[in-house]
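Session log. Operator J.P. requested a structure for one protein chain; no other inputs attached. Running the standard single-chain path with token output.
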Amino acid sequence: MIANVQSSLRTAAMFAGDDGTAVMEAVNCQVHASSLADRVATLFYGVFDRVTRRLRYMNAGHNAPLVVRRGGSTTYLQSGGAPVGMFSDWTYQEHTIQLDAGDLVIAYSDGVVETVNPAGEEWGAGGLIRAVGEYDNSGAEAVVAGVFQCLDQFSQGHQTDDATVAVLRVL
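Structure written below.
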């Protein structure tokens, strides 16, 4: 399933260029046509312009990426639509956020925020925000490593779901 989504995304991006809506709609159509009826995928698609520091994005049912501003405030990139493959003709809407030097964009899988400790407590978005706060003055790689270190401490090494974190630091 994931290979199908990745392949569709690469191909659509080649042909649609800067039109993010066309990219997402092509991926959605392809995944819907080539997957079993009960198979869908969540996807966050973003294009960052280094010159203007604008991030154009669409969220197809994925956990809302977190923006941590240089001053410490947080925003979620919640706008989006249905997971790809769910509906054959879903229309996605592109959104734009202005970022500033020092801001972080953190994308993560559900396995990060749904991690539980031995007492059955969920790490949640709060755990992610606290972990990022400990490392937010570091480079992107150090933020990722720090999040996983905090996650491992919380779960006491008993992570049961896949966990993915990607960080963009705006320069």
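Operator note: The radius of gyration is 17 Å.
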